[in-house]
Write a structure and sequence with these properties.
single chain; alpha+beta; Helix Hairpins; Alpha-Beta Plaits; 5 domains; five-stranded mixed β-sheet; three-stranded mixed β-sheet; 16 helices; 16 strands; coiled coil; SMC_hinge_sf; ATP binding; SMC_hinge; SMC hinge domain-containing protein
Length: about 700
């Protein structure tokens, strides 16, 4: 058989060898094409990187141009604002002189306000003291001042004050003025509080040489109004001739020692405008170039992706060829094996087949075992469920029996009362029938005799016998009825005793349950009180809240027994204990309500009606949350409970719901955006364009992740 197989395969060897050669040649072609494509990919990626670098540089340059334009615009607006400012305060002439200072050979030094510095603590006082001279222009000499005035007149630029250094003389400080420098409230001489170039000392001595800075008007009054020129730290001024000037000073735009004038001419502003326009045009050109490069980058990326896709196709084709070549190689090797090699392969294949069959059988057995285990587990689980169901049914039956006993208790009392009445009637009737005739005979014939009256007694006996014969014998029906009634009474008495014992057992059980319930209720109530106060403080931001149990007297319950045959109440230990228990219950007060005390921050509330609608809502929410914290429910449905709350209180309410949501799932009906924002999922009804209402659900966490 092996020889026949090999002979049949020899004819295919040549075809397989030719096919292998063809496939290998095709693979070589694909490998060469793949190398070219990979080279193209590298070049394309290099061009993409270069283009990205160019775009990055252009973006940086664009940002720099934008910043530069912003700076130029800010400088332009600032200088324009300064010009408007000087026009506003009437100093356009001063500004014109300062802008044209180069025309005067550098002999214009500036205005008084910018030639000195002063500490911020004294600036208001110094500005007030030198107010009339702050805008004066300091020039080198009177000749320069004359040329400046002629320049203003010729160009119709306004009027300015000039202080020539060669003509201005400082003021003399008197000994009287120096004598008060050390007194309390005196700050010092105004000129000594300034910082300036010594070259300008005559100017500042002329303006402030005899001016004294004091703390306030009270100090000035103590030193003497009209004695010196004094200025307070608040800007009030007292002149030597007694004039006082002061009051409230708002924010104004007057000159100050903090003013620094920029010497920017109209030509400079026009230069700024021209430079801004040039830079803006450069920015536009830069943006156009940037967009062009971005378009080229997009094309390069598309080209790179196309080449990469072509490379992927070549790689897949090469892998398929490799697999086909490997398969043909294996087939060729099989066709070229010797009979001995073929036999060895068949033996190996047989062993592998046997091993696989064993593994398959083992796996099938394992599957059957697992299936049996699953069935056994399901059966046990079903038995447990059935047992739980049966226990629940039994418990329900027992509960129904207890309820029936409790419900029939009043019926038994009514029946007992009827039996008592019937028993009393029967006893009365029997006593009347049995006792009354004999009593009448005795009453009418008292047996009080003496021996000497024997004949008379004999007559009396004869008479009594005669009367007895008239009465006749005792009726047997009456005796039978009495016996029957007595047996019925004894039977009912036994039933009453049994009922009394059962009632006692039930009351004992109820008392035990009441004790357990009271203990658990006390623990729960204590926790609810604590949590109520805590949630109240969270919702109100403070305040106090408390709960108080209200107790009252219980309603009286009359329980009567039945009399026995002798008309006496039966003595039964169970009944006696039941009566004792009833007396004990009557002495205990019963819980009939809960009182809520709520005092928001800053309020003393005696009744809940004094709270506003929002405050009552917050108080109710605090109580509900306290109850849920003590005994969480799986689901809690809230219907617009926060409708009366503002945003801040709603946020506090949402925070508490987040805390309670670890144990309960909240379903909230709301129109409040704050509540909806805190929800995990939103469910609503929306109407589409066709007018049909549809349910809509949104999970906020998924929306956030998508963003």
């Amino acid at each position: 058989m092996q020889t026949q197989y090999q002979e049949a395969g020899k004819g295919n060897v040549g075809w397989i060898e030719n096919k292998l050669k063809e496939l290998k040649n095709k693979r070589d072609e694909i490998v060469a094409a793949l190398k070219l494509a990979e080279a193209e990919v590298e070049k394309a990626q290099a061009r993409v990187l270069d283009k990205k670098k160019i775009i990055e540089n252009l973006t940086v340059e664009k940002t720099e141009k934008t910043v530069q334009i912003s700076r130029l615009q800010s400088a332009f607006l600032q200088n324009q604002s300064e010009q408007n400012y000087f026009q506003f305060v009437g100093l356009s002439a001063v500004k014109a002189v300062l802008d044209a200072k180069n025309k005067f050979g550098g002999k214009v030094h500036g205005i008084v306000a910018e030639l000195a510095e002063v500490d911020e603590d004294y600036r208001l006082a110094m500005d007030t003291a030198a107010a009339s001279s702050l805008a004066s222009v300091v020039v080198e000499d009177d000749e320069t001042g004359r040329h400046a005035i002629e320049y203003l007149r010729y160009n119709k630029l306004g009027v300015a004050t000039f202080l020539p250094l060669n003509k201005i003389r400082g003021r003399f400080v008197s000994d009287e003025l120096r004598s008060v420098l050390g007194e309390q409230g005196v700050i010092g001489l105004a000129i000594e509080l300034l910082k300036f170039n010594p070259r300008f000392e005559p100017i500042f001595s002329h303006i402030l040489g005899d001016t004294l800075i004091v703390r306030d008007l009270a100090v000035a009054q103590r030193l003497g109004i009209g004695r010196f020129r004094m200025v307070t730290l608040e800007g009030d001024i007292v002149e030597r001739h007694g004039v006082m000037k002061g009051g409230w000073r708002g924010k104004d735009r007057n000159l100050s020692f903090a003013t620094k004038i920029s010497l920017t001419t109209e030509e400079k502003l026009r230069e700024y405008q021209l430079q801004i326009g040039t830079e803006q045009q450069k920015l536009i050109d830069l943006e156009n170039t940037l967009e062009k490069h971005k378009g080229e980058l997009m094309n390069l990326e598309v080209e790179s992706q196309t080449v990469q896709h072509r490379c992927g196709l070549h790689i897949d084709e090469r892998q398929n060829l490799d697999k086909e070549i490997a398969g043909l190689d294996r087939e060729l090797s099989l066709l070229q094996i010797t009979p001995e090699q073929y036999g060895a392969l068949m033996v190996q294949f047989s062993k592998e087949k046997t091993m696989m069959v064993k593994q398959l059988a083992s796996a099938q057995r394992r599957v059957e075992e697992i299936g049996a285990e699953i069935e056994d587990f399901n059966r046990k689980e079903e038995e447990k469920k059935q047992r739980v169901f049966n226990l629940q049914a039994q418990m329900q039956v027992k509960q129904n029996e207890v309820n029936n006993i409790l419900n029939n208790r009043n019926d038994l009392k009514i029946q007992a009362a009827k039996l008592e009445t019937k028993q009393e009637d029967l006893l009365t009737e029997a006593q009347n029938e049995m006792s009354e005739p004999l009593v009448g005979v005795v009453d009418r014939n008292p047996v009080v005799v003496k021996l000497e009256d024997l004949p008379t007694v004999a007559d009396s006996v004869q008479k009594l016998k005669y009367q007895l014969s008239l009465i006749g014998g005792i009726d047997e029906d009456v005796t039978a009825e009495y016996t029957t009634t007595k047996e019925r009474y004894d039977f009912l008495s036994g039933q009453i005793d049994d009922l009394a014992a059962a009632t006692f057992d039930l009351e004992t059980m109820i008392e035990e349950l009441d004790g357990i319930m009271k203990t658990k209720r006390a623990v729960a109530f204590k926790k609810i009180r604590k949590e109520f106060d805590r949630y109240f403080k969270i919702l109100f931001g403070g305040g106090t809240a408390d709960l108080t149990e209200l107790y009252g007297e219980p309603e009286e319950e009359v329980v009567e027994g039945m009399p026995n045959a002798e008309g006496q109440m039966p003595v039964n230990e169970k009944i006696a204990e039941g009566e004792e228990m009833s007396k004990k219950k009557k002495s205990e007060k019963v819980l009939y309500g809960i009182d809520i005390a709520a005092n928001p921050p800053g309020k003393k509330i005696k009744h809940l009606n004094a709270l506003s609608g929002g405050e009552r809502t917050l108080t109710s929410i605090a109580l509900i949350c306290a109850i849920l914290n003590n005994n969480p429910s799986p689901f809690v449905v809230l219907d617009e409970v926060e409708a009366a709350l503002d945003e801040a209180n709603t946020q506090r309410f949402v925070k508490i719901m987040g805390e309670l949501s670890t144990h309960s799932q909240f379903i909230v009906i709301t129109h409040n955006r704050v509540t909806m924002h805190a929800a995990d999922a939103l469910y609503g009804v929306t109407m589409s364009g066709d007018g049909i209402s549809k349910l809509l659900s949104v999970k906020l966490e998924e929306v956030k992740n998508e963003k």
